Amino acid sequence: MGFEFIEGNEAIARGAIAAGCDFYASYPITPASSILHFMNEHVPEAGGLVIQAEDEIASMGFCLGASMAGRKVLTATSGPGISLYSENIGLAIMGETPLVIVNIQRQGPATGSATKGAEGDIQFTRWVTSGGLPVIALSPATVEEAYKLTYIAFNFSEWLRTPVFIMGSKETGVTKEAADLESIELPPRIDRKRVKSGLDEYLPHQFDSIEEVPAFSEFGGEYIARYTTSTHDKTAYLVTKPDVIQHMLDHYAAKIDSAVDELSLYKADYQDGADTLVISYGITSRSVEVAIRKAREQGRKISSLVLQTLWPVPEKVIKAAMNGIKKIVVPEMNMGQYLIEIERLAPPGIDIVPVLKMNTTLVTPDEIINEGGLL
């Protein structure tokens, strides 16, 4: 097909379909609604199911049930919808339920500016549900990245039996650009590990080593697949024993923490002799690319690290990028949400310069240059 002129939301939907997504449920919300429109048009014709639910809480309930019945599941919303998703996201973590959750961020808090952009849900996504357990969140900057990272999000979700977030934005979601999706090289598709047939006993959360991902048996299959929102043991029966509860919670964290190297996606543009590093993500990284090009044309040596994985924090990647660096510039379309992580990881003596903006407009290349002191 070659190059097409499409928006990021369509690319997300097509990435999901390429990954084998056959169930979608959501409630319309600006600026994520076009994902629902595209999925409704294309998923049923391939034998899948699309539901426009009565609200966001019902959307997530449908998604959890569909995933546990063996479907590959996508949902999409914006910040206010993530608030309503919160309790069922916790259930997805507790029940080890694979699904991909798209957050096309808009200006907040609350209803905020419904048609305006920001990337203000970064920390919200990390701590979205009670318990504080790790989550996986990927951040695309282009239409082509929206396609590929959504596909990869399904792989991560199926592999680790956990919800995975795509952190888009109004600009990445509803802005059109030329993209050749067919030319994008995708990794092999991963499907969740199914339990063997004919076992004397099936435990819904069976693992030997703490980081092992349990084999999956769907609702209505050969085995009884128990499922609960309460603390439970490997049988999925409610439990109150502190040592068992701790063991299960350690397991939910360990399966993600042990995979952090494989989960760490990024783009690096390092320059020999550079003592300044710009760390960015999402739509702002496109302004960073222009800013660095302008600065280099004036003879400045500057390196760039663009994070595509925000959670879990790719600490090894970030620390390695800081070697030999005297100043780090961190531009964000929020009040400094990922800046906290950079400050935590930076060794003493590095000058960290935030370039923060949350007035619904993009951080411009010139703002990065001037406020970040790149010239």
Question: Radius of gyration, Cα only, in angstroms?
Answer: 21 Å
- How would you state the average pLDDT, rounded? 97
Order of strands in the sheet with the most strands? 3-2-4-5-7-6-12
Helicity, in percent? 25-40%
Number of domains: 2
Class from secondary-structure proportions: alpha/beta
- Number of continuous helical runs: 13
* CATH-assigned fold name of the largest domain: Rossmann fold
E-strand count: 14
Q: Mind telling me the CATH class of the largest domain?
A: Alpha Beta
Q: Which percent range describes the beta-strand content?
A: 15-25%
SSE string, helices as H and strands as E: EHEHEHEHEHEHEHEHHEEHEEHEHEH
Question: What attributes does this structure have?
Answer:
about 375 residues, alpha/beta, Rossmann fold, 2 domains, five-stranded mixed β-sheet, 13 helices, about 35% helix
Provide a descriptive summary of the structure in words.
The chain is α/β, with parallel strands linked by helices and 375 residues long. It folds into two domains: 4-183, Rossmann fold, CATH 3.40.50; 268-372, Rossmann fold, CATH 3.40.50.920. Helix content is 36%, strand content 18%. The chain is built from 13 helices and 14 strands. It has helices spanning 8-18, 33-42, 56-68, 79-94, 122-126, 143-160, 170-174, 242-257, 260-263, 284-297, 315-321, 339-345, 365-372; strands at 4-7, 23-26, 49-52, 73-77, 99-105, 136-138, 163-169, 176-179, 266-269, 276-281, 302-307, 309-311, 327-332, 351-356. A seven-stranded mixed beta sheet has the order 3-2-4-5-7-6-12, sandwiched between helices. It has a five-stranded mixed beta sheet with strand order 9-11-10-13-14, with helices on both faces. The longest helix is centred in the middle third of the chain and has 18 residues, at 143-160. The protein is globular. The model has no long low-confidence stretch (mean pLDDT 97).
